[in-house]
């Protein structure tokens, strides 16, 4: 039973006992008992006495009846609220996310302890309105899975991010970046045209790189060519599910071409993000956070009287799931046909049938062409999941596979897009750093238009440092969350069992106690010879979290961010549109630019030769 469920049972139990006692002992009429119970329930909802009593020893801003600190979280963003609270209450404090207390840790060493010691994410992290099949699917994805299920899934995911697999994803990243460059060239030309006339509209680079990162994770996760940028240019794939051949076209690994499927998936992923953020969510979700005791009632109400936002969320969920499931079933059917053909061939050659060896769990486009299915490319994540087996040799269920593909897309899309946008913002605001990036890229040499490759990354330490520093100042995962289990003490405070422990990454990464010139953008601090600017505590840098639940895709993300940034600056520089400094950010599921990052794209004449 989760802490929320326990609390619910206690509250309803007390109310029922209260009503029954009143009736039996004093002969109070039933109607009065009901009214008394409703009154008692309202008092509980407004004052949240049980939780406030359990967390009374931990300092923090005052609890406001019914809403806790939710209005501040929505208005300021949790990252800014945590900064304010750390200054006022010290490194450990509590804030009220509606009726739920969060114990926030804004200290590098204590944050490490929490992340290493606690394994599960809190139940409160899930959408409280989810139940039944939806809840089961969510809890079977790597991000929210718990205990034994999590450790099985983490092992299944691991090969996806081995070095060979990472190299295998480079062509997808390169082809999507190529499309982005082509699109930005077009937009830059339009900007030039407009500049001569009525004034150039700025380009929201956050949106542009978001399309690209969605294409990269979508293509990698589902084996579907999202083909987004080409769609806008009126080129690209067909609605039919025609398999591209390896080595054909743009050099990307074989991917199913599905234009409408790709667009629907992208829309679905974007809707999932938007509708899951508390500021944009269905009113029922807000009510569920404010009154967890009433969650069962709200679950019923939202099912019977859904509002538009909830309908959008449900539709998005269905799209993600049905796309995965249909890809999986197409692939299974194809594999079965293939196995049959192989058996028939073998029988014809040797005169006897022999068992077929299943394809090995290998990621990257190098997987055997003989085992290549039509729907899902072997270089895709779904291809890997189809071949994976748990310790007992069981395959994942279709629902489990679909859940992993969803997590891959959702975890890898906005985080990487935000990182790239922040890096571009920082470089545009610091011309001297931009000049160093350009010099480093020009030193790569090669003919004009030569693309940056994964092997070049070793020769681009400053570009890597720009990404690291952008992730320090603007961590897309601005905090990590864990559920306390058993007795744990942080900063001298006993943390109640089941508490939500939040490690305040943003605050730690900007704390002057650990970082010289903490608020300054200084990529040099990541380069040898500048130890005076480096962190005084290694635990003060955790953009990908830490401990066993640390981001499993961090190498994928860094490779993608560095490659894309390098390729963009081989071709362009970016100038900030007026009014962009300081950048406004908002924290929802990720910390992202509030409206975007608006720039003018300036094409570089030609990449110089060495
Ligand atoms: C710059 C981009 C990214 C950032 C900043 C980022 C950040 C994070 C953070 C902070 C966490 C929570 C870690 C913790 O609780 O200690 C996380 C978890 C996770 N990330 Fe990422 N991430 C990024 C890209 C990606 C990509 C590209 C993928 C997949 C391809 C991915 C997949 C995941 C998964 C599956 C988890 C959950 C791991 C688990 O619970 O075992 N992330 N990420």
From TrEMBL:
<feature type="region of interest" description="Disordered">
    <location>
        <begin position="235"/>
        <end position="259"/>
    </location>
</feature>
<keyword id="KW-0560">Oxidoreductase</keyword>
<dbReference type="InterPro" id="IPR002401">
    <property type="entry name" value="Cyt_P450_E_grp-I"/>
</dbReference>
<feature type="binding site" description="axial binding residue">
    <location>
        <position position="551"/>
    </location>
    <ligand>
        <name>heme</name>
    </ligand>
</feature>
<feature type="compositionally biased region" description="Low complexity">
    <location>
        <begin position="336"/>
        <end position="370"/>
    </location>
</feature>
<dbReference type="InterPro" id="IPR001128">
    <property type="entry name" value="Cyt_P450"/>
</dbReference>
<keyword id="KW-0479">Metal-binding</keyword>
<comment type="similarity">
    <text>Belongs to the cytochrome P450 family.</text>
</comment>
<dbReference type="InterPro" id="IPR036396">
    <property type="entry name" value="Cyt_P450_sf"/>
</dbReference>
<dbReference type="Pfam" id="PF00067">
    <property type="entry name" value="p450"/>
</dbReference>
<dbReference type="InterPro" id="IPR017972">
    <property type="entry name" value="Cyt_P450_CS"/>
</dbReference>
<keyword id="KW-0812">Transmembrane</keyword>
<dbReference type="GO" id="GO:0004497">
    <property type="term" value="F:monooxygenase activity"/>
</dbReference>
<dbReference type="GO" id="GO:0016705">
    <property type="term" value="F:oxidoreductase activity, acting on paired donors, with incorporation or reduction of molecular oxygen"/>
</dbReference>
<keyword id="KW-0408">Iron</keyword>
<keyword id="KW-0349">Heme</keyword>
<keyword id="KW-1133">Transmembrane helix</keyword>
<keyword id="KW-0472">Membrane</keyword>
<feature type="compositionally biased region" description="Low complexity">
    <location>
        <begin position="240"/>
        <end position="254"/>
    </location>
</feature>
<protein>
    <recommendedName>
        <fullName>Cytochrome P450</fullName>
    </recommendedName>
</protein>
<feature type="transmembrane region" description="Helical">
    <location>
        <begin position="20"/>
        <end position="46"/>
    </location>
</feature>
<dbReference type="GO" id="GO:0020037">
    <property type="term" value="F:heme binding"/>
</dbReference>
<keyword id="KW-0503">Monooxygenase</keyword>
<feature type="region of interest" description="Disordered">
    <location>
        <begin position="331"/>
        <end position="372"/>
    </location>
</feature>
<dbReference type="GO" id="GO:0005506">
    <property type="term" value="F:iron ion binding"/>
</dbReference>
């Amino acid at each position: 039973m989760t802490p929320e469920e326990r609390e619910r049972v206690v509250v309803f139990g007390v109310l029922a006992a209260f009503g029954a006692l009143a009736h039996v002992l004093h002969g109070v009429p039933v109607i009065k008992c009901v009214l008394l119970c409703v009154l008692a329930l309202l008092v509980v909802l407004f004052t949240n006495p049980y939780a406030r009593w359990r967390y009374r020893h931990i300092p923090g801003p005052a609890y406001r009846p019914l809403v806790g600190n939710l209005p501040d979280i929505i208005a300021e963003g949790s990252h800014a609220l945590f900064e304010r609270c750390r200054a006022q209450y010290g490194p450990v404090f509590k804030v009220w996310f509606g009726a739920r207390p969060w114990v926030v840790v804004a200290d590098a060493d204590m944050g490490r302890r929490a992340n290493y010691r606690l394994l599960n994410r809190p139940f409160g992290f899930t959408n409280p309105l989810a139940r039944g099949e939806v809840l089961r699917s969510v809890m079977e994805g790597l991000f929210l899975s718990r205990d034994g299920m999590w450790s099985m899934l983490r092992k299944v995911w691991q090969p996806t991010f081995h070095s060979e697999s990472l190299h295998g994803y480079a062509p997808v990243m390169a082809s999507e970046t190529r499309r982005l460059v082509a699109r930005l060239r077009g937009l830059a030309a339009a900007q030039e045209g407009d500049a001569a006339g009525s004034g150039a509209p700025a380009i929201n680079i956050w949106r542009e790189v978001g399309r690209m990162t969605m294409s990269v994770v979508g293509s990698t996760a589902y084996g579907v060519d999202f083909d987004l940028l080409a769609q806008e240019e009126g080129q690209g794939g067909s609605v039919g599910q025609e398999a591209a051949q390896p080595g054909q076209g743009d050099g990307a690994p074989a991917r199913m071409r599905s234009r409408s499927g790709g667009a629907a998936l992208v829309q679905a992923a974007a809707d999932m993000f938007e509708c899951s953020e508390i500021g944009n969510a269905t009113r029922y979700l807000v009510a569920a956070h404010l009154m967890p005791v009433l969650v069962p009632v709200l679950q019923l109400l939202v099912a019977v009287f859904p509002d538009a936002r909830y309908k959008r969320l449900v539709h998005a969920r269905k799209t993600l799931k049905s796309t995965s499931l249909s890809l999986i079933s197409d692939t299974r059917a194809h594999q079965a046909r293939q196995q049959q053909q192989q058996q028939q061939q073998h029988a014809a050659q040797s005169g006897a049938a022999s068992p077929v060896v299943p394809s090995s769990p290998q990621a990257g486009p190098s997987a055997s062409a003989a085992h290549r299915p039509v729907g899902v490319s072997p270089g895709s994540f779904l291809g890997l999941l189809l071949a994976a087996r748990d310790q007992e040799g069981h395959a994942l269920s279709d629902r489990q596979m679909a859940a992993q593909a969803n997590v891959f897309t959702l975890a890898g899309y906005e985080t990487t897009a935000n990182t790239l946008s922040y890096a571009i913002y920082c470089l545009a605001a610091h011309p001297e750093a931009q000049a160093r990036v350009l010099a480093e890229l020009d030193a790569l040499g090669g003919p004009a238009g030569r693309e940056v490759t994964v092997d070049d990354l070793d020769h681009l330490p400053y570009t890597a440092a720009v990404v690291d520093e952008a992730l320090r100042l603007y961590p897309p995962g601005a905090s990590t969350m864990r559920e306390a289990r058993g007795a744990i003490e942080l900063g001298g405070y006993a943390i109640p069992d089941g508490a939500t422990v939040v490690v305040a990454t943003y605050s730690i990464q900007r704390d002057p106690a650990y970082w010289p010139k903490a608020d300054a953008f200084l990529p040099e601090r990541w380069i040898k010879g500048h130890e005076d600017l480096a962190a005084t505590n290694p635990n003060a840098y955790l953009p990908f979290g830490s401990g066993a639940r640390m981001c499993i895709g961090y190498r994928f993300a860094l490779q993608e961010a560095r490659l894309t940034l390098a390729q963009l600056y081989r071709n362009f520089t970016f100038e900030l549109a007026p009014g962009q400094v300081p950048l406004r950010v908002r924290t929802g599921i990720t910390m992202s630019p509030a409206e975007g990052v608006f720039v003018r794209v300036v094409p570089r004449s030609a990449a110089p030769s060495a």
